[in-house]
């Protein structure tokens, strides 16, 4: 951001025709790649003088499109993944269910997405129980 000539989030927001709150969400890794609007992504990437993939997935030290260029999740995302996995595992054990790894992974993903969208653990548990039966 600073290398692109925008010392403050408000400066980048103006250049990207966005809001300071939106830029702060990007800077604090509170943006889910699955929920990003393309127009917003490209405006911010252009203003920050970054490749849109770098902005969306982070810098991995490799060029865009090179093998091994992968999204490295933030610690916050990993914490939510762990919560999702533990919630699913607890519900499976508590209800004496047997599910294969593929089904467990699908339920983990569902739980993760719901938690990332701000649903409470109790609501996520209810959705998961409905999905398991």
Can you describe what's shown?
There is one protein chain. The chain has 133 residues and is mainly α. It is 60% helix and 0% strand. The chain has 7 helices and no strands. The longest helix has 20 residues, at 75-94. 14% of the residues are buried. Residues 61-67 have low confidence and may be disordered.
Q: Can you summarize this structure?
A:
The protein is mainly alpha-helical and 133 residues long. Helices cover 60% and strands 0% of the residues.
Quick tags:
60% helix; mainly alpha; 133 residues
Name the structural class.
mainly alpha
**Dominant shape:** elongated
- Please identify the oligomeric state: single chain
Tally the helices. 7
| Biggest beta-sheet profile | none
Beta-strand content:
under 5%
Q: Which stretches are poorly predicted, pLDDT < 50 over at least 5 residues? A: 61-67
């Amino acid at each position: 951001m600073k290398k692109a000539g925008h010392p403050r989030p408000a400066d980048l927001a103006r250049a990207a025709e966005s809001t300071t709150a939106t830029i702060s969400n990007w800077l604090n890794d509170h943006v889910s790649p699955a929920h990003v609007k393309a127009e917003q992504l490209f405006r911010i990437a252009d203003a920050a003088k970054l490749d849109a993939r770098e902005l969306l997935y982070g810098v991995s030290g490799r060029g865009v499109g090179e093998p091994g260029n992968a999204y490295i999740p933030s610690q916050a995302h990993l914490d939510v993944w762990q919560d999702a996995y533990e919630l699913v595992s607890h519900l499976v054990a508590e209800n004496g269910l047997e599910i294969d790894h593929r089904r467990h992974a699908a339920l983990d993903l569902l739980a993760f997405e719901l938690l990332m969208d701000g649903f409470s653990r109790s609501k996520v548990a209810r959705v998961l129980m409905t999905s398991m039966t």
